[in-house]
Amino acid sequence: MSPNQSTPNSGQPLLKVEGVSKYFMRDKSRFAAVEDVSVTLNAGETLGIVGESGSGKSTLSRCIIRLYDPEKGRIFFDGIDFTGLSNKALRLKRRDIQMIFQDPLASLNPMMTVHSAIEDPMLIHNVGTARERTKRVHELLELVGLDVGAANAFPFEFSGGQQQRIGIARALALNPKLLICDEAVSALDVSIQAQILRLLQDLQKQLGLAYLFISHNLAVVEHMSDQIAVMYHGKVVEYDTVEEIFRAPKQEYTRNLIDSVPKIPRSDSLRFKRPRLNEDAAGA
Ligand SMILES: Nc1ncnc2c1ncn2[C@@H]1O[C@H](COP(=O)(O)OP(=O)(O)OP(=O)(O)O)[C@@H](O)[C@H]1O
């Protein structure tokens, strides 16, 4: 399934997933966690992946970064066939794709200061001198709306929203082209969710990032995305622009998802009013 012909295609394709399938074993039989999925994400745009728990969203994202090897299909990133890359070439290219997760603390080493956590990807990839890396850590903290003084503290000393900002700063350390946001705001209070979503939108504008935005929450996906792929039992059952999905959902499953979205006017400026980056940091 592909977006209809009217889909705006302003950016260049950055990510192309073509017929990807991934199987696992359950009760001694093989089942498709992801089946024949094809989606495209343009540079600087957001593709939302929505679906209930177990529909295959995370497995798809793990196939994209080749944490899993898909059994079928191909994944092109930045014009390169990711599925055919050697481990060494993959490691080099994978720095252009970073992930942020639902629980930022789980992905940050508790023994590392915020400075070390953000510097770590640069050290792993041999980027810059110690002085240059420190400068970059401070730039990144400011970029995500945190005080430079945060560098000396440990992640557990921060609130959930601030921890997610630290996770985002770390993810941005290597100047990626694509950020995979896997349930990135699901664990946060609604007001903090809105702040992190605004931050992600501001960063997208400033840095030209593309997002693969994964969530079970259609309201959040709607707010963030240019296009949406709806997953059900491992398959993409609907794939189109946000406007089309909401205007004329083709599948009953999608209609039910839309019906379950709280009825708040889409233009509601309170929920997602855009503040300046550093205005919302205190509460997050
Ligand atoms: N490593 C694995 N081994 C076996 N089965 C798995 C594995 N990872 C995921 N699954 C199964 O594959 C299916 C898809 O899981 P996946 O985590 O991709 O879904 P999801 O949509 O991301 O759900 P959630 O939002 O709950 O994480 C589920 O039935 C899950 O139990």
From TrEMBL:
One of its GO terms (biological process) is transmembrane transport. It comes from Herpetosiphon aurantiacus (strain ATCC 23779 / DSM 785 / 114-95). The lineage of its organism: Bacteria, Bacillati, Chloroflexota, Chloroflexia, Herpetosiphonales. Belongs to the ABC transporter superfamily. Residues 15-258 form the ABC transporter domain. SMART domains: AAA. This is ABC transporter related. One of its GO terms (molecular function) is ATP hydrolysis activity. Keywords: ATP-binding, Nucleotide-binding, Transport.
